[in-house]
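Run log, item B.
One chain of 460 residues. Sequence copied directly from the ordering sheet:
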Amino acid sequence: MAGNVRQGKGTASCSRDGGRTGRVQVDSRPGGAAGAERGGRGIGRSWGARALRRALPVCFLFASFSPCGAREPAYHTTLAGEPGRVSFMGQTVEIPALNRADMTSITLGASFLAPTRGQGPIIPVAAFYHRRITDRSYGRAMVAIFVNELDYGRDLGGWDLVAQFENGTIPVAERELRDGEEIRGTSLYYGTLLGSLGVGWRLPVAPFQVDNDLRVQLVALGGYFYAHRETDSAPGLWVPPNTGLYGARLRCRYDGMRRNLLELPHEGMAAGFDVDYLHRDRWRAESGSADDGNRDYAQAEGHLVGAAGVPGLSERNRLLLGLYGGFTAQGKGDRFNAFRLNGGPFPGEQYDLAWPHYSGVIYDRVLARGYVTATAGYRRELAFFLYLSTLGSYIWADRSSAVGDDRVDFKQMHGSAATVALDSAFPWKSSLYLAWSWESGVLRNGRSGNGVTLIWNKLF
């Protein structure tokens, strides 16, 4: 199951937040979120199957692919939520409006690794996503059984009441890597449950879809952390005590992004930051440590994501950029509060945009107490429902690594990744994501490799 929650800030790689209208009246021009991670817009069964059958042979020949050619004629990409009419293969296709303020979807998929990362070559992902927005409240849920995110906001007349919950409680022991191999002695069960309650303020921004706003939130944090051994745990492995968690979070998010038919970033910018402070109540330092074992720690991370057109070319051609960074103050990071770096598709959904992204296969067990990533890419609209993307990423990370057979420490690494991906609408109001990725060795901790990812999203 992809995704996890760390003590300082929960992450679940299956999906993030949807938008909200807040105090803006919801009308027939809905604008909202993708579903679970890519749960965007599907195409109808009758014309969708016919369109795919006719289009794929043509699209893969790249007959319309000419990014370096002469100026292209004017073209308008169908945007998320809006009705449209397009001409395709000699037929007129009607695209109905979609109420993006009320969306429910599921995501199923997997990444296939070669060579394997740890014990198995397959990393599955599954999630349920729901978002409902009214003119006075918003609610979002990403449910993956052991990794979940719940978010609720209520307009109190100028201010919002904000309540959130997240957990990462996967019932599988985690092991650290060394030179691409799992070290059995580092095996440990651990997880976090974290709730928050506080106040927020929201201002709708252009282009005034339900996921376009400026948000500032200040919340109190409270939760619980647990850890215990398993059969393979080494006798000398540090196992911290179960403990309560208390703290606070300041969050600022701006989303001025316009999405296309498949909820992929089309034009605009999103940016933001989180600052967390957390206290671990009953904490015990690792044996031999001279301090309190990171009982109290502060973390900060930020992001900047953008999409824009290519000068001289039509809307079919888009440039993509994603910058992410995070650090733990005074180096007070350990395997239990580290950032979890997320691979997978280039983010588009409002909360997905904010979580650490490194182009590649779906995997978020890369733990780092500090990181910087940069992703740049190009996307070509092959047909109104079919998009081809190429992405390159760079990463620097102070990454966790097994030391000996019973200890986990951090070491600085840097690397790169490349991805070629195909996003397509699919019959039955669903969509497909297929990608090949190569990564230089940060993912497998010293060993380069390839991966193929396939994701299916169904919108209800």
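Observations after the first pass:
- The mean pLDDT is 84.
- The CA atoms of residues 285 and 291 lie 7 Å apart.
Flagged for discussion on Thursday.
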